[in-house]
Amino acid sequence: MDLTHFGWHSRGYLPHFDGCASPQFITLHLEDSLPFSVIEQWQRQLTHVSDEEQRVILQRRIEKYLDMGYGKCVLKDPRVATIVQQSLLNFDQVRYHLFAWVITNPSLLTK
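and the corresponding structure tokens:
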């Protein structure tokens, strides 16, 4: 479904909204926190279910996997977390208005 006439745009990876002011929630994660090979394996396991069912199951698995804190977890280094925070704040009130943000290491949440 093409949503460009509603103000939504995508270059194939992260959709964004250029319409009137609208709160948006964006989650970013580091590449090594969920290897593509894991997603491919799950997709092979789910070939017997409908596309919609596959989408729901994959989303649940992805969120659970990300919460487990796999990967190098470089955001636990305060210097790296500060760099990420500064990049978020760089265009605050210029290109966007941040209401809140969180930079966390998921492995700290699961203990």
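(Above: one complete record from the training split.) Residues 31-71 form one domain.
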